[in-house]
Amino acid sequence: MKKILMMLVHGYQRFISPLFPPTCRYYPTCSNYMLTALKKHGAFKGTIMGIARILRCHPFVRGGYDPVPDHFTIFRNKSARDEYRKTMHLK
Q1: Where would one find coiled-coil regions in this protein (predicted)?
Q2: Which ranges in the chain belong to alpha helices (H)?
Q3: pLDDT for residue 72 is more than 80
Q4: pTM
């Protein structure tokens, strides 16, 4: 199941995503986040995490660095974001 979902995301990245301008507010992009979540957490939890990330990606969010956490959660990885900002000397 995980491989099928990953093939769907790769298909999106190759055929659908190039048709639209880049608008993802996070790094890594939502599709890369989904692939990493599927690899780390499996088909069920990875899909839930990816969908939660896509729902968080809208014009009213600040965005920024948000890697896939090592433990399952549908919330943003704030500790990694704060650590990244600290190392880059950002606010």
Answers
A1: none
A2: 2-11, 30-56, 78-87
A3: yes
A4: 0.85
H/E element holding 64?
A: strand 64-65
Provide CB contacts within 8 A for 63, sequence distance 6+: 24, 25, 26, 57
Give the length of the chain.
91
Structure tokens at 14: 């190759």
CA 20 – CA 63 distance, rounded (Å): 19
Distance from chain centroid for Cα 82: 17
Measured CA to CA, the distance from residue 72 to residue 13 in angstroms comes to: 24
- Quote the CA–CA distance of 6 and 37 in Å, as a whole number: 10
